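User: Okay, second chain of the day. Same drill as before: sequence in, structure tokens out.
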Amino acid sequence: MKDPDGKSTLGDRAPEAGRRFNWGEAIITRLIQLSGYSAIVFVGLIFLFLVRQGAPALFETPLAELFGTRWYPIEGYFGVLPLLTGSLIVTVGAMAIAVPLGIGTAMFISEIAPRWVREILKPLVELLGGLPSVVLGFLGILVLSPYLRLFLDLPTGLTALAGSILLGGIALPTIVSIAEDALDAVPRAYRDAALAVGATPWQTMWGVTLPAARSGVLTAVLLGMGRAVGETMAVMMVTGNAPVLAVRLSSIVSPVRTMTATIAAEMGEVASGSPHYHVLFFIGMLLFVISLVVNVIASAVVFRQRSRSERILS
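Assistant: Same drill. Structure tokens below.
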């Protein structure tokens, strides 16, 4: 277009359109950055709240008693070691069940199963991950615990083993779904190159595809572990809730109590501001720190793997 003097106006409008586009892009960029920073701020505020409510426990209860072996708040015993060991044995047992089954299932769905089988299994796995934990807890009480009691000839089926099996089933859909997405994202050229040099399909899966998706698989395992560590209702229903020190091998078939179950069972009835109240928040601090340490270690492993891959490619 031209103005009355015969000069074109397209050259003047193009920079204006460019400036409007740049302003919109800058605003969107800032909003995305703000969203990312807000996650850090929220996590920091949660940690500060836990410290504010849980730190008084370090001054109200001697450390020798706080990290003691007896949890009986009615008489003033606030030893958290039985709760720590209970959470540890249940989580380790759950991961021992969920990790091999989850990675194997993800490999089957991604590499072996026909397309029509994959289209059926993947939604079913994700549907299983959406089941309420209370429903799974009822199944654990009515089916799993009586079966374990009869099969292993135990006094009670409400044991750490029941909690581990149930938590393994709860964490399994998360591991399968995320690990399968990571395996599916591996370029097809990797598989073709391995097969071209004489590798069998089995060698290609475990020697090429799985290592190439290592960071995604590790993320899947960590998210599954986070689901297991943070689970409350199902664990509280099937582990027996006995705050005993779980340091022997036989503890896996004995009742235990986890940290999350303790907070859920006692927080509603504890007096606000009491030593018991502060110790429960101190347990929440321990859970927060454990999750933070696990995620930092995993991030360091993934970052090291990426740096090594970049050095190899360069």
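The CA atoms of residues 140 and 166 lie 7 Å apart.

User: Thanks, on to the next one.
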